[in-house]
TrEMBL record, chains A, B:
PANTHER family: ACYL-COA DEHYDROGENASE, BROAD-SPECIFICITY LINEAR ACYL-COA DEHYDROGENASE FADE5. Its cofactor is FAD. Residues 162-271 form the Acyl-CoA oxidase/dehydrogenase middle domain. Involved in the assimilation of dimethylsulphoniopropionate (DMSP), an important compound in the fixation of carbon in marine phytoplankton, by mediating the conversion of 3-(methylthio)propanoyl-CoA (MMPA-CoA) to 3-(methylthio)acryloyl-CoA (MTA-CoA). InterPro entries: Acyl-CoA_dh-like_C_dom, Acyl-CoA_Oxase/DH_mid-dom, Acyl-CoA_Oxase/DH_mid-dom_sf, AcylCo_DH-like_C, AcylCo_DH/oxidase_C, AcylCoA_DH/ox_N, AcylCoA_DH/ox_N_sf, AcylCoA_DH/oxidase_NM_dom_sf. Signal peptide: none annotated. Keywords: FAD, Flavoprotein, Oxidoreductase. The lineage of its organism: Bacteria, Pseudomonadati, Pseudomonadota, Alphaproteobacteria, Sphingomonadales. This is 3-methylmercaptopropionyl-CoA dehydrogenase. It holds the Pfam family Acyl-CoA_dh_N.
Length: 596, 596
């Protein structure tokens, strides 16, 4: 039962209350986006998600994409939905007005991305990938390339891809073999094979703009010899109209566990014409511009699927009658009580809910930092925001996708046997969510990025962008009546995080494998503390509102229960995580390879 | 890459070493099963799994079962494989020699079940379901019914099913509607609809014997009005040969997330002829005879899939080259190092390994208890064994399926993007393993069974069958040189379990919802302590062997690393579980239903 309604109430709470005063200030560039306007955008997005995208989610999964003679066909209805999406201006939502975008804050954009991911993750990838491409072109390409590609990409008439992976290299891009040979006219001829290219071919847009990593003839070995190229499916004439076909072909699509309505393409480049984006051999940096944008979005994908799965589970738990409450019948009028009366069913629902609301708050915090980084007029705030997005990008990517996937499985479990049956649509969430833990860098790679790059950077400066507000908040609120117990738990969890950080800093300095062995547990620990901090702030607001009798719909009272659940039932995991981190690498590295 | 080889070395360790002296003693009924004979059986089973069942696992998933006009066809090759399985005597392995079984110990049987589940879980369900049926018939049916059905079922010429679930009732069997009307000849006419019937119809056996829950006309309401009937697909003539078709039809099969080569059938009974098994209205007890047998087997299914996934992940991690070790190249002869050099990849592999070996040890302990319960000549041992299987059945079912599923997902994660692609076969493990957490009673229902029935039974007597040996072991070994640290950790974890038990006993007495709110975390806590205990015993044996230089293949050294990993990286979770349990029900039960 796929029943998604965008959680607008919680979204409004985050955007207008929790993050109204968060130290990043306001930005003149966003002055025109009044709360009313933002609410109107969110409401429209909610309608789009519900009316246009949701109805195609199960049918898209069932039908999948098809490939025939180099051409990919998306499932029935996707083309019409994409046209409606594009015409509604949704492709241009957060993009630069200079290129036709609407320049909305990233906070609003991430909420819309969440709704799209909840309603139809497969669909969301088609416009979503374009975003990474435009970001790289804006940041690194020449004005000529920008003018040629950006307007059509921003409006969604053309879509984008990121062509990184090759059959023998995914994480280790240093091994890539695709070649780029310079031509006299300043263009390049690109030749090579790429795999796992999302939206590599499809029938939704009139052109597809590939951003391709390749090596120049004089390229040094490894990652320092990679350059970025823009390679359109169809060449573009002088007047900007569509020209002849370029030398790029989709040679097949993957049969996957899920995300079946999103075409995952094998691409063959055969003397395809492309243009350099940025400097020669600087492709990796340009690629990370795309990747970092995408990584936060992939985290939001995990959140979105988890949020949809939560709603499905709630609907089923209220509807399905089976057995009686442990304390005696609660609905004697029915043959049995709805299963939502059972504590263990509620444990599953509350876990999903706490994950979802906690991850949503974290994604909004990072979105605020993204906005501040781009739009704050205060250079000190910009720096702090930049530090925080650098730190939190791997956390958001890995934590939100891990928990989103877990939420999807809790929804399947809530359904029992019916959850395993395809027609109910809930197992699709589990299959779809699974990829987000893998693509744009596996979650293990995110954890390594966090401990290996982000922690040591600038003498730990990135970390301070997160530790300072948490420490300050604890200090300021520890004696606030009614908050003592929560702040105490937050302080203990934060203490565990600080201890874990010190352990990694110390051991990891001497032996990078020690940092690697701790990385995944550390990312989880940091993520749980981040959510605990944002939840403490949320509960404080909610507590005041309920105390003042300003809770007509029960939203704040419910928020307090959710926060309590998180603090009592999920946050205690930090103790075990710290112990595991302190144990060190021996129990992993001492096993001889042949003994596995 | 599905590459399964049965882990015979670990299996021999468990059966000949760890459980050679475990307080249950030896059984005259098993005197003929010498270690050599047992090893020979395990080796033959390993060959069967590898040569016959494994090659059909991916093709079976791809093709699935088909249903047409009431007839189910299994995937290509399944019929030949089943014939080979049956002719090899594998259907009769653990069954009573009285009915043509080979009477092998349950320990051996469970290891064989694990191999079958690893190689081809879908296949395993066809002979597996028969076992539950024969158990119920042996325990409850009249001699006449036993003679009519058991010989053919035991040899596998006929298969069995368990027909419990109806569209509106799964967990709550009290609501079931299928009717049984007595006939003059002592038979009954059965009418009603059942769903989710594994192996309800197929083309592997000449007859299918359904064990059906239904209500007699004078039945009291609820679970006290359920009776059990045996209903064959084809009626049986006086001479025992196949007679006319009975009034039972498969009206469709489910399209599922996984386990696609196992037919999950909708069954329609329309005046089907059946015979009562056991006393009228005592069907629930008879059904639990089947269920309990099946529940341990379902746990082993989870273990089996996890074990296969572990092997796939190891093979990939050794083969896939990508990046360099954090401490510098380990294979400078290659373009990159195999990913098994990375600590975080090893964290995933070691987690899978610790789960697999720990769960295997636990399943063997319970299998030993099952053997003791049936075959010990000492009534005191029989009682203790019975207590332990009663306590541990829900734990084995839930813990082994949870961890098996988690292991399967860790294998997918080890594969990265390739793990999401169907052709590699590893995502199939994740989909197949998923159902084991649901069927034969969801894992939430297992947890409720543990805290609601098993803990309080006979004043806590069941629990003592587990607590006593653990306490005794700690006491005896706490000052054994070299074991202090491990025993200290075991003692702390056991202390947490005792505290959690006391909390539940105290709060749950006053309010059953408190027990329900704690149930899943408690089951996990108890399961982790059980594995820790068995791992401590394993490590002790391994330590002595390595010290004496009796470790030519490195098995014991590897076992010690695995145990260390479990103690350092997994067991620390008990702290968080205890905190969560102590927090109580409020954060689940305080949320108003409409606020979800």
């Amino acid at each position: 039962m796929q029943v998604y309604e965008a959680p607008l109430r919680d979204m409004r709470f985050l955007i207008h209350e929790l993050f109204a005063k968060d130290g990043f200030g306001t930005f003149p560039a966003h002055a025109e986006f009044t709360p009313d306007l933002i609410d109107a955008v969110l409401e429209e997005a909610a309608k789009l998600a519900h009316d246009v995208l949701l109805p195609l989610n199960m049918s898209g999964d069932e039908e999948g994409c098809t490939w025939e003679n180099g051409v990919v066909r998306t499932p029935k209805g996707f083309k019409q939905a994409y046209d409606q999406f594009r015409e509604g201006g949704w492709c241009a939502l957060a993009n630069d007005p200079k290129w036709g975008g609407q320049g909305l804050p990233e906070t609003v954009n991430k909420l819309v991305e969440e709704m799209i991911s909840s309603a139809n993750l497969s669909f969301g990838l088609y416009p979503g990938l374009t975003h990474g491409g435009t970001t790289a072109i804006k940041a690194h390409a020449s004005p000529d390339i920008q003018e040629r590609f950006l307007p059509k990409m921003v409006e969604g008439t053309w879509s984008g891809t990121m062509c990184l992976t090759e059959p023998h290299c995914g994480t280790d891009l240093g091994m890539l073999r695709t070649k780029a040979v310079p031509q006299e006219d300043g263009s390049f001829k690109i030749t090579g094979n790429k795999i796992f290219i999302s939206a590599g071919d499809h029938d939704l847009t009139e052109n597809i703009i590939h951003l391709v990593l390749a090596r120049l003839p004089d390229a040094p070995k490894g990652v320092k010899g990679i350059s970025l190229f823009v390679v359109p499916k169809f060449l573009i004439k002088e007047d900007g109209s569509i020209g002849p076909r370029n030398g790029v072909q989709c040679t097949g699509i993957e049969h996957k566990m899920g995300l079946k309505a999103s075409a995952t393409c094998q691409m063959s480049f055969d003397d395809a014409t492309g243009w350099l984006v940025g400097e020669p051999h600087q492709g990796l940096a340009a690629m990370f511009t795309m990747m970092n944008t995408e990584r936060v979005s992939v985290g939001v994908q995990g959140l979105g699927v988890g949020a949809a799965a939560y709603q499905a589970a709630v609907a089923y738990a209220k509807d399905r009658i089976q057995g009686r409450a442990l304390t005696g019948p609660k609905r004697p009028d029915l043959a049995a009580d709805p299963i939502i009366v059972h504590p263990d069913v509620r444990r599953m629902l509350m876990t999903m809910r706490a994950y979802t609301e906690g991850c949503r708050a974290l994604s909004m915090w990072v979105a605020r930092a993204l906005d501040a980084e781009r739009h704050s007029e205060d250079p000190e705030i910009r720096q702090r925001a930049e530090d925080m997005t650098a730190l939190m990008t791997p956390v958001v990517k890995a934590l939100l996708t891990d928990l989103g996937h877990e939420a999807a499985h809790l929804a399947v479990q809530t359904y029992g046997g019916h959850g395993y049956i395809r027609e109910h649509g809930v197992e699709q969430y589990a299959r779809d969510a699974r990829i987000a833990m893998i693509y744009e860098g596996t979650n293990g790679v995110q954890a390594l990025d966090l401990v290996g790059r982000k922690l040591p950077a600038h003498g730990g400066r990135y970390l301070r962008s997160f530790f300072h507000p948490v420490a300050e908040y604890i200090e300021k609120n520890k004696s606030t009546p009614g908050m003592e117990k929560m702040i105490d738990a937050l302080e203990k969890a934060f203490g565990a995080l600080q201890l874990a950080t010190a352990t990694i800093a110390q051991k990891g300095m001497a032996d990078p494998e020690e940092a690697g062995a701790a990385s995944s547990d550390y990312l989880r620990l940091l993520g749980l503390v981040a959510i605990a901090y944002l939840f403490a702030r949320s509960a404080k607001i909610a507590g005041i509102k309920t105390m003042m009798g300003q809770d007509p719909d029960g939203f704040y009272a419910a928020k307090m229960v959710t926060v309590r659940f998180f603090y009592e039932r999920i946050l205690p995991q930090v103790a075990g995580l710290l112990t595991a981190i302190k144990a060190g690498k021996a129990s992993m590295m001492d096993m001889p390879e042949e003994a596995f």
